[in-house]
Amino acid sequence: MLPQNINRRGVMLVLSSPSGAGKTTISRRLMEEDSGISVSISATTRPKRAGEIDGVHYHFVSREKFEEMIRNEEFLEHATVFGNLYGTPRKPVEEALERGQDILFDIDWQGTQQMKAVVQGELVSIFILPPSLEELKDRLQARGQDSGEEIAFRMSRAMDEISHYGEYHYALINYDIDDSLTRVQSILEAERMKRRRLLGLADFVRKFTEAPAGAERHAD
User: Fold this and answer.
1) What is the DSSP code (8-state) at residue 197?
2) Which pLDDT tens digit goes with each residue over 77-98?
3) Top-level class of domain 7-40+100-210
């Protein structure tokens, strides 16, 4: 617990992994168990799917609007995926960080690189590795969401994605979801207490140095 006169700036937490390594499950459980962190909502030009809600799953915008936002530098990162544009709006992230709210980003290594260049050291990045490629393929097949062709495509991308693990601050091997979640939570808690994020800490400590001479002796 922090004193009332010390405010904490929020943490920008990135989780990246090849598809099937456990990132989505870890992200979901992290938010379920910690009210202090919420996921960043991306903007996209792709059509809204059945059951999706604007402002909850994505901010759905036209291509013209998206391109205007790029020109106005309103994104922390953006990319084209299968012909559709995706991006992380800057303003809601900055407002959340000022409130002390931590923000979780589910982006790939390219988006992480873009964002690191923009936020100048604020980002905390974790790369989640599978125990092996064989285990990764088994997980993709077990979830029953993708065709054999789609699984083959995801596996072909996995090695390229994994090759960028060294660009991240932390890396963990996801043998067990519960253990991996605990490790992510530990990293987040440590990053929350980084001195540079504790606004007002210097003034708090200054009170010790400004205490009247002999104050400690009088208190005995």
Assistant:
1) G
2) 999 887 899 999 999 999 999 9
3) alpha beta
